[in-house]
Amino acid sequence: MGEKNDTMCSYLAVPEIFADFINGILFDGRSRIEKEEVMSHDSVYYEKVVSGNGAKLKLNRTRDVVKGIAKGNKYAIVGVENQNKVHHAMPLRCMEYEVAEYIKQLKYIRKNYQKTDGTAEEFLSRMSKDEKLNPVVVIMFYHGNGNYEGCTDLHGMLDFEGENEVYREFITNYRMNLITLQDIKEENFKTGLKQLFGVMKRSEDKKALREYIEENADEFSHLDEDTFDVMSVMVNQKDLVKYKESCKSERGEMDMCKAIEDIREEGREEGREEGICALVAVCKELGVPKEEVVVKLMTQFSITKEKAERYIEKYWKI
């Protein structure tokens, strides 16, 4: 799937994060689902296919993130498919996942159906009139940059041009539940998703990103480690991981503001050392005595004599 999709899947698989994601996406931030109500659910389903030589094969397909929601005596299945690139067949894929879940439930009901019970119609259906399937919701989360330019429903994938237009009204249109970064309101979230989505939405605009982090410095100074790690991958800032230990508090919280400042300081230090190396090389080429070069380094870079002499020893032979 790719590192970003794998990272997002692992993060959303945590019950607390998953509940917050669904509340923020589907219910405008209202706490309709609690983390204790998020249950593990089988993310693999099997598909029977026939190979070219006629052999029957059983293939398994794995979903990105699927959870059961147990509320009272009711149960629903909610899945999230993560994409950072446009997938032109995604409406059909989401529809396939929903149907597969319903078929799985129907098979279970039929397997446990008692033939001696019920009416002829129920015997034919192998399920009672009052039995119901649990609802299935599939969310397609596009976390790539920019607009989603692919089809968003089944009709968008079908050729209705010319003579085919007459069939449109007879074909039920499946619409996938598409959510993009632009759709997300980060204020709807209560976990690290709030900071993560805020950063992801501004990752292409360095000025906006810097201002967002500075405006929310208190929150970014107390990030949980998982969010910190996910953020470093999702916004292409893997260098942040190198500074984890130096910016971790005694409580295990991550200070992203300090990590960013450490990166800036390292960049300034690297630029400073490049300047020192260049000055030493030029002075050596011009025949300037080492003693004078030491003075120049002390003056231009505000360093001690001992440090200047160490730089001379380091770069004079280059």
What does this 3D model show about the protein?
β4 (65-71) and β5 form a beta hairpin. The strands form two sheets. A five-stranded mixed beta sheet has the order 1-4-5-6-7, sandwiched between helices. It has a two-stranded antiparallel sheet with strand order 2-3. The chain starts with a helix and ends with a helix. It is α/β, with parallel strands linked by helices. The chain folds into three domains: 3-188, no CATH class; 192-254, no CATH class; 270-315. The chain is built from eleven helices and seven strands. 43% of the residues lie in helices and 14% in strands. The radius of gyration is 29 Å and the shape is elongated.
Could you tell me the number of beta strands? 7
Structural class: alpha/beta
Strand content: 5-15%
Rg over CA atoms, rounded to whole Å, is 29 Å
Distance between the termini: 46 Å
- Helices, by number, come to 11
Order of strands across the widest beta sheet? 1-4-5-6-7
The amount of helix comes to 40-55%
